[in-house]
Amino acid sequence: MAAPLPNHPQLRGNYGPINFEASYDDLVIDGSVPEGISGSLYRIGPNPKFVEGTYHWFFGAGMVHAFHIDNGRVDYRNRWVRTPKLEQEIALGHGLNLDININKDTGQLESNRRNGVANTHILTHGDHLIALEEGSHPFSMDPQSLTSKGYGHYGDGINGAMTAHPKIDPETGELHGFGYMTDHFGSKTMTYHVIDRSGRTLRSDVFEAPYAAMIHDFVMTRDYVLFPIFPLTCDMSRIATIGFPFAFDRSVGAYIGVLKRDAPVSQIRWLAAPVCFVFHYLNAWNDGPKVTFDAIDFPVAPNFPSADGSNPAHADAQGKLTRWTVDVNSGRIDRDRTLDVASEFPRIDDRFAAARHRHGFIASASQRAKGDGGLFNEITHVDYDSGKVQTWDAGVGNGVSEPVFVEKGPNSPEGDGWLLATIYTAKTAISSLVILDAQAVSDGPVATARLDHRVPYGFHGSWRPNR
Ligand SMILES: [Fe+2]
């Protein structure tokens, strides 16, 4: 029997889970869905059915929300990702801790890479729909019904876990990803994975980072992969002092690992980098040895303590869109702030991944107030060529998700398309799917598909076109 969830800030309001799975056809639509949009938008986030002991938003069981769109009509369904952990919890009627065990021989913490929470990102590669979370293997689901297939159907045989932010190269069709702390929890080991469209692992090579740290995302261009390591370090001895192994420790510096894509990992070179923190990169490209990437830079790691146990100041917990240029030969790194607005969840027109992009799309909050729970209430388009910035404001107190780009047609120019996002309206406590013209964001939604319930705040999502 499911018990009430604990009274916890990340289980209240729209951070709290919903306790049902629904199939809900032909949503009521304000406006009209543009002709030609045919496919599915997937969103994923934490939605715990059970909570045992302490809770953190990052560790709730994943739930997928799918909006299947065709001929102007929107059908919706939501399903939990039926990981072995969630199946066990349902069978037992109570929550379980993450499957992390102490190895009796080595004394090290080890986790079962096929017993995670699959709550961070969901994307398609070839015919595979995979739910991702950085401590575990990819988890396969059926793209239409959202029936869970499980671990081991895609990228089987990778060493350790895979990031929730792999990159798909539109030219080769390959997916590039990485894992961290792959030997054991707290280790410096990382892996570089390449997986083909059939889901076959092409490489999964182990290398060592300068130190053990939480690493959420990375950078890929046509010729290089870059592994930026910022000092959100992992030290098990901190459990005794500050109660948590991860803390931001600027004393150890920051590094960017540089590797030619076709080179062995033994050739990774580590460049010294400015100390800051990045969860997410918009995109990257290279012109010879000059790599350019756009990132959401934070002064420190938000939501994590400093090494002395103190918490970041409010102003330091705001991420801002920043352009990095890295000369991989000389090691010179320059940074320029693009937009002085608190932002996250950067996305591009994915047809231009790993190549020079002109357009960026982000969730933003230009009127951020202390105590707003980190909400983003705006969707913003940045045109890097013209310098023009357009914003649509969903209303302070309402929450917007990451905006996912859908091109108008296969031959449309970069950025000529639509942005799909979910919004949560606080007053009515319901969510909707909004569709904006990516080149006229400030005009607001051209269509709003209404749900009768809320989609809890989640992390990431993606578009899968009907073929
Ligand atoms: Fe992420």
Could you tell me the number of beta strands? Answer: 35
Sheet with most strands: 6 strands, antiparallel
Estimate the helix proportion, in percent.
under 10%
Structural class: mainly beta
Termini gap: 42 Å
Share of residues in strands:
35-45%
Bound ligand species: fe (ii) ion
Total of domains: 2
Give Rg in angstroms. 21 Å
Low-confidence segments: none
- Give the helix tally: 2
What characteristic shape results from the CA principal axes?
A: globular
What is the averaged pLDDT score? 95
Features:
single chain; globular; mainly beta; binds fe (ii) ion; six-stranded antiparallel β-sheet; 467 residues; 3% helix; five-stranded antiparallel β-sheet
Explain how this protein is built.
There is one protein chain. The protein is an all-beta fold. The protein has 2 domains: 1-154 and 349-467, no CATH class; 166-338, no CATH class. It contains 2 helices and 35 strands. The strands form 9 sheets. Strands 2, 30, 31, 32, 33 and 34 form a 6-stranded antiparallel β-sheet that branches. The protein has a 5-stranded antiparallel β-sheet with strand order 1-5-4-3-35, with no helix packed on it. A 4-stranded antiparallel β-sheet has the order 8-9-10-11, with no helix packed on it. Strand 4 and strand 5 form a beta hairpin. It is globular, with a radius of gyration of 21 Å.
